[in-house]
Amino acid sequence: MTTTVLLPDPTTPLSRETAREAFAVILDARASEDTIAAFLIAMSERGETSIEIAEAARALRERMIPINAPPGAIDVCGTGGDGHHTLNVSTAVALVVAACGVPVAKHGNRAASSKAGAADTLEVLGLDMDRAGATAEASLRDIGIAFLFAANHHPAMKRITPIRQRIARRTIFNLMGPLANPARTTRQLIGIARPDYVPLYADALAQLGTQAALVVSGEEGLDELSGAGPSVVASIGNVVLPARVTPDDAALPRHAITAIRGGDAAHNAEALRRLLKGEAGAYRDAVLLNAAAALMVAGTVPTLVAGAALAATALDTGSADALLDRWIAY
């Protein structure tokens, strides 16, 4: 049963305290669905501030079911919703980076706007989602990788999902996934589908106590570093990249985005397995570019060129492929 709690006027920017209380009300379902929907739409039309994004994430973090993570664990995650329907780049990056010795707490979900999310593709490859969820903390500790299925860790979002579906448009909650990793990672590579939001999002991330991160967006609206051309980048902490990065910066060739267009979960899973078996091409180069950035975030390498070379070794030696098999069998 909903209450009659009112939300503040969303047509003007909210203070930190007001935003904190507003998102507590929303996530605890203490306002009506109509009130929440109107609030989210108006805020989206006005444009969210970094304070509002940070406080929404803080409220979600306070209600999540967390796990413990080893020191130095990172997340590689995109907001999704870029409309390009590419292969699962961040999922492949997670495997490659973990094969390089960096613990990866991969936060993800099933497809929302694409044909195959990380969970869908990993499931086709043989990863039991229920078991992976139950053993996430142990697998992260023992083999250096875990999949943190968002639905298992964010019960408060179940109340918001019907409202988001009814609204059927982008709201602040489309930005929340990477900001509320259940492993409480303080090192992240985050891709967002809106290049103009990169500085704003990075500011929100910094407010949340992030130690080191890169927020990236392909200039064509891709929620990862683009293998086709320039990407907008914001650096946090002691990891530093230029504000504009291209594949050339990692000594990698460029490929049209259409070269990594994905399909359903079965299609994407097959492509991912071929990649891990050593297949060259646009998918591999996109993964190498983003893995290089993640390895910089982890503090493992000093440059994108060095990161791409290390990531290539993880693929060429079969280490990433073997890690997937260990994970499935775990």
Automatic annotation (TrEMBL):
Catalyzed reactions per annotation: N-(5-phospho-beta-D-ribosyl)anthranilate + diphosphate = 5-phospho-alpha-D-ribose 1-diphosphate + anthranilate
Cofactor binding, per record: Binds 2 magnesium ions per monomer.
Domain called Glycosyl transferase family: residue spans: 73-320
UniProt source species: Sphingomonas aerolata
Record-listed Mg(2+) 1 binding positions: S90, E224
Cofactor(s) needed: Mg(2+)
Domain Glycosyl transferase family 3 N-terminal: 13-63
Key words of the record: Amino-acid biosynthesis, Aromatic amino acid biosynthesis, Glycosyltransferase, Magnesium, Metal-binding, Transferase, Tryptophan biosynthesis
GO biological process: L-tryptophan biosynthetic process
Assembly and oligomerization: Homodimer.
Protein purpose: Catalyzes the transfer of the phosphoribosyl group of 5-phosphorylribose-1-pyrophosphate (PRPP) to anthranilate to yield N-(5'-phosphoribosyl)-anthranilate (PRA).
List of residues binding Mg(2+) 2: D223, E224
Positions bound to anthranilate 1: G78, N109
GO cellular component annotations of the record: cytosol
Pathway: Amino-acid biosynthesis; L-tryptophan biosynthesis; L-tryptophan from chorismate: step 2/5
Protein name: Anthranilate phosphoribosyltransferase
Domain of life: Bacteria
